[in-house]
Amino acid sequence: MRAAVLTGPGRIEVERAPMPEPGPGQVRVKLQGCGVCASNLTPWAGPDWMEFPTKPGDLGHEGWGTIDAVGDGVTGLSVGDRVAALSYKSYAEYDVAEADAVVKLPPELADAPFPGEPLGCAFNIFRRADIHAGQTVAIVGIGFLGALLTRLATDAGARVIAISRREESLQVARDMGAAETIQMHDHQAIIERVKELTGGKFCERTIEAVGKQWPLDLAAELTAERGKLIVAGYHQDGPRQVNMWLWNWRGIDVINAHERDPQAYIAGIREAVDAVASGRLDPSKLYTHRYPLDRLGEALDATRDRPGNFIKALVTF
């Protein structure tokens, strides 16, 4: 099979690799595509802890495709089933997943791309955020995740204030139902605007979806007394400092919304499948850029640089 290998910082080669074989309780998926996650960007940059070359397909974890081989002891899944897979070497034409880490895709999603992991992640974050009708929710960072959360929170009856640095992203937020949008450029000006919009109370819920120090600081400032600060950004480039005085004074609940339980991930993916198949959620316009496997490097660069209307890149086979 063809598989991508990171050979050094900012360098990828597509190589021939042996086909993976499913063991007991596993299935092999012939991949149709894989989403490109911003968490790939730190390995792509080549930090000191990275080891090169990577294993074939490494870093790809947002794959979908059809089952083409089934290991011993697998029930309820068959060759030909179209699935979203929670697997971790999906920048390749085939990957192996545990049978309980795949979710069948219904006929309503035939031929539609379905990067299950980030879609499921949005539903899990939304559940842990405990958002209700009538609340004001600030979402700091409108990429793929922030856009989905804008839609979910709006549909729950919350008033969403979307904050992002790019005007194109703010337009996406408006399209997804945001009641108010603020450009993320001046820390104090944003705080004053949110204070004005909330009558001085700030937001019952604030979701930080960037993964950097400044947006985390800003998100805390926008959270109301006894509100909840939900950390959805992936902070992987080093330690963070927090304003514990502010957190204490306001009595903020801080929730790290990243799941590490595979079954919680799968539950979120199932929710996403139901929502997209029923038409309650339409992520299709968020898939703004598509690349073949041999242009994965370009997809990663676009994920980093966010040209034009960029929201989400897919690698398709």
From TrEMBL:
SUPFAM superfamilies assigned to the protein according to its UniProt record, in alphabetical order: GroES-like (SSF50129), NAD(P)-binding Rossmann-fold domains (SSF51735)
Pfam families, A to Z: ADH_N, ADH_zinc_N
Keywords, comma-separated and alphabetical: Metal-binding, Oxidoreductase, Zinc
Cofactor: Zn(2+)
Molecular function, one GO term: oxidoreductase activity, acting on the CH-OH group of donors, NAD or NADP as acceptor
Keyword Zinc among UniProt keywords: yes
Domain Enoyl reductase (ER): 10-231
PANTHER family reported for this sequence: L-THREONINE 3-DEHYDROGENASE
Similarity comment text for this entry: Belongs to the zinc-containing alcohol dehydrogenase family.
Name the record gives this protein: Putative oxidoreductase
Species: Sphingomonas changbaiensis NBRC 104936
